Amino acid sequence: MSFHATVLTLYPEMFPGHLGHSLAGRALERGDALIEPVNIRDHATGKHRNVDDTPAGGGAGMVLRPDVLATAIDAVSPEGDPRPRLLMSPRGRPLTQARVRELAEGPGVVIVCGRFEGVDQRVIEARNLEEVSIGDYVLSGGEPAALTLLDAVIRVLPGVMGNAESGTQESFETGLLEHPHYTRPAKWEGRAIPEVLTSGNHKAIEDWRQAQSLELTRDRRPDLLAGNDDQLAK
After folding, report:
1. Residue 192 forms beta bridges with which residues?
2. Closest listed residue to residue 132, CA positions, set 152, 112, 153, 151
3. Are 75 and 43 in contact (CB under 8 A)?
4. What region does 49 belong to: left with phi over 0, alpha with psi -120 to 50, or beta?
5. Structure confidence by residue, pLDDT tens digits, 152-206
6. pTM value?
7. Would you say the C-alpha torsion 93, 97, 103, 108 has a positive or negative sign?
C-alpha cells in the first residue's frame, strides 16, 4: 500500500511542486506515494464561498472558519481513517527526523495548510489536529511547510533511495549532525582531502567521521547533545 497524503489548501496548484522531480517525483510516478491536494474553498457555502472571517476580540487579519475547515476534513478523512491529521503551524512541535520516520511507517497523512492569521482553535481541538512546525519563523502559509514535511517523509519510504544506507548516515539520524564529505579531485585550490579518508583504514575513517560529527554538533547544535551522556563522553 502506498503512502497517501491528502493536503487541504487554498492553493492546490502548489502541489506536488518540487516533489514532482528527482527522488520524490519517481516515487510518485511508481505509485510509492500519492499526494492529493484538495481545495478548502470547495467545501464553503454561500454566494461568496467565504472560508475566513474576522478574529473574535478584534485584531488584524482573518481566521479560517471552523465550519468550513471541519467539513473539508470530514470529507477527506471520515471516521476510521487511520492517518494522523497535521496542521502546519509555527506554534507546533518542531518536526524531527524521528517523527518523519514514524509518519513514513504509517499509511499516510492528512495535512491542513493554514493561511491568514491562523485556524479557529475549536476545529483544531474538535478534529484532533497535531500542530507541526518546521522552524522558528513564519511563512505566508502552510503550503511550503507541507511540501517540506512530505519531502522528508517520501525520501525515507522503502525503495525510494537507491542506497537505503544513505538515509541512516545523515544528520539527526544518530542524534548528531553529519560529518563533512569530500570527493575528487584529491587537491582543489590548495585544499587536500584529509589523509585519513584516503588511508584505506576503515576503523580510522569511522573514528574520524564520528569525531567530526560530534565537533560540528557541539559547535552548531549543542541542544542536540543535551541529556545525551553517551555522546558527550566521546
Report:
1. 187
2. 112
3. yes
4. left
5. 999 999 999 976 555 555 667 888 999 999 999 999 999 999 999 999 999 999 9
6. 0.91
7. positive
